[in-house]
């Protein structure tokens, strides 16, 4: 009788443990997949710009540098997520490999439709970025063991992600200076915020410092952007309702 009770308790404990483990896995994958989906929204956001470039057969005053920075960032973060660098962060690989593919397409179109001077400049910078990534990959595999390799790539990915926040900071400064949200599209800001929140949760659940720190910073910047949007869009609406004096 006692052995049956002990066996039943052990079975119940095992079932509870498996259930909690499965719930933990579900939460991890849900956060990672949500981050992938919101990141996809960001990846396709330049499509209207490139439709205009292709239609006009000119890059006009657009810059290709943001796409170059995004490409290098995606490549470094993708490399960090690969199994021989880090364990169990496959959704970091998927989002950044998709992102790298989009940035390569954008850069190819930019180079095709740029004038000769900008074509040569962007082509050279693209080759330089790819060579830099190849160097990082080679050094990390040949000169570092697995723990050191993960640490090296982790810090590089954090630095790369934090450098990408220069764009939101510039937009925040522009909104405050102009007191207008014209240059800060709401849905783009919302998608950036939701992506950062998702990957922050993903990093926290996996206890991965190199994922949750930069995305925590991105979450805070996203909150600031959304608050600024709410404040200045309301001010614009209020001022538009003020009656004109005769």
TrEMBL record:
Pfam assignment, any one: MtN3_slv
Membrane topology type: Multi-pass membrane protein
Assembly information from the UniProt record: Forms homooligomers and/or heterooligomers.
GO CC annotation terms, alphabetical: plasma membrane
Record key words, sorted: Cell membrane, Membrane, Repeat, Sugar transport, Transmembrane, Transmembrane helix, Transport
Biological function: Mediates both low-affinity uptake and efflux of sugar across the membrane.
Organism of this sequence: Rhynchospora pubera
Segments traversing the membrane: 23-44, 65-82, 88-112, 124-141, 153-176, 183-203, 209-232
Gene Ontology MF terms in the entry: sugar transmembrane transporter activity
Location relative to the cell: Cell membrane
Protein name, entry field: Bidirectional sugar transporter SWEET
Parts forming coiled coils: none
